[in-house]
Specification:
The complex is a heterodimer of chains A (309) and B (320). Chain A has 309 residues and is an alpha/beta fold. Chain A has one domain (22-304): P-loop containing nucleotide triphosphate hydrolases (Rossmann fold, 3-Layer(aba) Sandwich). Chain A is built from twelve helices and ten strands. In chain A, the strands form two sheets. In chain A, strands 6-7-8-3-9-10 form a six-stranded mixed β-sheet, with helices on both faces. In chain A, strands 2-1-4-5 form a four-stranded antiparallel β-sheet, with helices on one face. In chain A, a hairpin with a 2-residue loop joins strand 1 (54-65) and strand 2. The termini of chain A are far apart. Chain B has a single domain (77-315), classed as MetI-like fold (Orthogonal Bundle), CATH 1.10.3720.10. Chain B has a two-stranded antiparallel ribbon with strand order 1-2. In chain B, a hairpin with a 6-residue loop joins strand 1 (76-77) and strand 2. Chain B starts with 26 loop residues before the first helix and ends in a 5-residue tail after the last helix. Classes of the chains: A alpha/beta (309), B mainly alpha (320). At the A-B interface, helix 4, helix 5 and helix 8 of A face helix 7 and helix 8 of B.
Chain lengths: 309, 320
């Protein structure tokens, strides 16, 4: 990785960097991916250092379901070790866009992604990219806590086991739970079923579960919308802690939440296309502070001040 | 007084207070309730009647034949002049057929279910599902004929080194029963796996699990209670199957090892079927015998169902 990218809302498409990246290596040699993957990304990050590197370079991205466009012309960069919030009214395509970033959309029949998504300079939708491999580097937390109906331990160990990670599983589980700020709550009942936990704990378990495979990025799709304010507060604190190590993209309906935790904010809105479809697009992308205090676009201002939406 | 109707019928009580009593006695509602309860009672009553009709002649049977001789005897010749009542050969015959059937039906049925629930594109599903349902509704006598006249010669061609004898072979009957119950296993297991919440699948995919790992480590365990139910249903069906084994396994109540694929045997159901349709007089020991065998069959399936319930409780992964 050679280029340094300034985070501006509308950058030109970047030239492709030399292909020395976790993603392309894995794609070239799928057999080699298992044993090494937990180490690839941290090294990678150290190498890059500075805080202004782009993790994702989203350029002219559009998504359609069975030919019906859901979101289009999305262009912005997501910076490393920052929290980027995607806000906007329902149906504006925030979650759809989020799911492009770890290729979860591949699982939906009829879903098509156009434009360019770069991940550390690699084309995320390149012909040799393996979506399964992508998801080991880009974790995801969902709206409704979705622990597996297994023990707390087995939930955390699931990812490492599935990926065949070598090493002391107990240690991996403990580390993930500590990073997920859950260790002290659950260390005495690791063998208990995860469904016995409160909703907030379940969601933190899901976060810890995704930390266990050492992703580079964590995508969060309205992670607090099913939780009470106290649990929400805990998860927000956790996010602020996690951004020291990880880059986070969060979709939220809660504008206070976006304002509290995020560094950058993308405001989406819904427009009617020529064919009368409701299509989402990005109106404004900037530092969170600017979006909330001095937005450039009147639509953003109307939304963040609560006049609409 | 405001012109506002409070009562449902639209008529206002004379003193202006709201009318809270029912407008009609709703006899229809009561009649429906009675009808529904009656229908539910019919199946309970039928079950009771069957159990009683099995037990009463069985008591008569065990008055003449010691219980241990029946259960552990290895010589089954109840219709002969010098009758013996060791039920073991036909019990083993039944269990052998069931074992062969499950050996076919469990892997084929479950793999079909995994394919249908997790892998099959909608187009394929739309074709395969109805085909499986047709197979499920196939008359058992047709499957028996298929086993006797098609499957057996075919298997003899493929495995000529097996000691093929007469037209009947327990293994052929077992495989035919197994193929017959594949749709039962696959459709019940398919339903169980499809009802696993999509969120669990997404969670696993998001951790970099492949489709196979998602199916095997998340969906399958989460659906285990439905899957065990599918297997138990199928096993019950195999134990109770009569027509296929009558046609393909023969009527030789001999005690053979379960791996004697080509031997002719008799199952409990086949014994009941052939004996009850022959001329036997009520009140004779032969007559009571078929009920004793029927009662034993009932106890076997009951025990299996209870075991299954325990298994399900033990291994169930409860989601919500």
């Amino acid at each position: 990785m050679t280029q340094e990218t300034e985070i501006t809302p509308m950058t030109e498409p970047q030239p492709e960097p030399p292909a020395h990246d976790a993603l392309s290596e894995a794609a070239a040699d799928p057999a080699a991916q298992r044993g090494v993957e937990t180490h690839v990304v941290p090294e990678h990050r150290e190498r890059k250092g500075g805080k202004t590197d782009a993790v994702f370079h989203i350029d002219g991205v559009g998504v359609s379901y069975s030919g019906k466009p859901a979101v289009r012309d999305v262009t912005f960069d997501i910076a490393e070790n920052e929290i980027t919030a995607l806000i906007g009214p329902s149906g504006c395509g925030k979650s759809t866009l989020l799911r492009c970033l770890n290729r979860m959309n591949d699982l939906i029949p009829g879903c098509e992604v156009s434009g360019h998504v770069g991940f550390h300079g690699e084309d995320l939708y390149g012909p040799r990219v393996d979506p399964v491999r992508v998801r080991t580097l880009i974790g995801m937390v969902f709206q409704k806590p979705n622990p597996f109906p297994k023990s707390i331990y087995d939930n955390i160990a699931f990812g490492p086991r599935v990926l065949g990670v070598k090493g002391d599983l107990d240690e991996i589980v403990e580390r993930a739970l500590r990073r997920g700020a859950l260790w002290d709550d659950v260390k005495d009942r690791l063998k208990d079923n995860a469904y016995g936990m409160s909703g907030g704990q379940q969601q933190r378990l899901c976060i810890a579960r995704c930390l266990a495979i050492e992703p580079d990025v964590i995508l969060m799709d309205e992670p607090c919308s099913a939780l009470d304010p106290i649990s929400t507060g805990k998860i927000e604190d956790l996010m602020l802690e996690l951004k020291e190590r990880y880059s986070i993209v969060i979709v939220t309906h809660n504008m206070q939440q976006a304002a509290r935790v995020s560094d950058k904010t993308a405001f989406f809105t819904v427009e009617l296309s020529e064919e009368e479809h409701r299509v989402g697009r990005v109106v404004e992308f900037d530092d969170t502070e600017k979006v909330f205090t001095n937005p450039a676009d009147p639509r953003t201002e109307a939304y963040v001040t609560g006049k609409v939406g | 007084m405001a012109g506002r109707d409070i009562t449902a019928s639209g008529s206002r009580a004379t003193d202006g207070r709201p009318r809270l009593e029912a407008v009609s006695p709703r006899y229809g509602e009561k009649a429906i309730f009675a009808l529904l309860a009656l229908c539910a009672a019919i199946s309970v009553a039928t079950t009771l009647a069957i159990v009683i009709s099995l037990i009463v002649p069985s008591i008569g049977f065990f008055g003449e034949v010691p219980f241990a001789d029946f259960l552990f005897g290895t010589d089954w010749a109840p219709t002969f002049a010098d009758a013996t009542f060791g039920v073991l050969p036909i019990v083993v015959g039944t269990l052998t057929v069931t074992a062969w059937a499950l050996l076919v039906a469990i892997p084929v049925g479950l793999l079909t279910a995994i394919y249908m629930a997790e892998y099959a594109p909608t187009r394929v599903r739309r074709v395969v599902k109805p085909v499986l349902e047709v197979l499920e509704g196939m008359p058992t006598v047709a499957i028996g004929l298929f086993a006797l006249y098609f499957a057996r010669p075919l298997l003899e061609d493929i495995f000529p080194f097996l000691p093929w004898g007469g037209p009947f072979a327990v293994g052929v009957a077992g495989i035919a029963v197994g193929l017959m119950i594949v749709p039962l296993v696959s459709s019940v297991a398919d339903d169980a796996m499809r009802s696993v919440p999509a969120g669990l699948r997404e969670g696993a995919y998001a951790l970099g699990a492949t489709k196979m790992k998602v199916s095997a480590r998340v969906v399958f365990p989460a659906a285990i209670s439905g899957i065990v139910a599918a297997i138990v249903l199928a096993a019950s069906r195999a134990i109770g199957e009569t027509m296929v084994v009558l046609l393909a396994a023969g009527a030789t109540p001999q005690l053979v090892a379960p791996w004697d694929f080509t031997e002719s045997i008799q199952t409990m159901t086949a014994f009941i079927g052939t004996t009850a349709t022959g001329d036997i007089a009520t009140g004779t020991i032969t007559y009571d015998t078929i009920f004793a065998v029927g009662a034993l069959l009932f106890v076997m399936t009951l025990a299996m169902n209870m075991l299954a319930i325990r298994l399900v409780r033990r291994f169930r992964e409860v989601y919500e």
